[in-house]
Design goal:
The protein is mostly helical. The protein has one helix and no strands. The longest helix is centred in the middle third of the chain and has 50 residues.
Length: 54
């Protein structure tokens, strides 16, 4: 049978892993948002530069 100390250490490890996954998900979402903004800026730049030539 596991001791309370072992259970506590296992729980602490699980919490740390969960926090890492949460942090990675936040980083992934921030990167996704940056990519969307970049694509929009890129599209707007080329759309506006085409209008200026016409």
């Amino acid at each position: 049978m596991k001791s309370v100390k072992e259970d506590f250490l296992e729980l602490s490890k699980m919490k740390a892993l969960f926090q890492q996954l949460t942090d990675q998900q936040a980083e992934k979402e921030a990167l996704r948002q940056r990519m969307i903004r970049f694509e929009e800026a890129h599209t707007n730049f080329f759309t506006s530069s085409r209008h200026k030539r016409n």
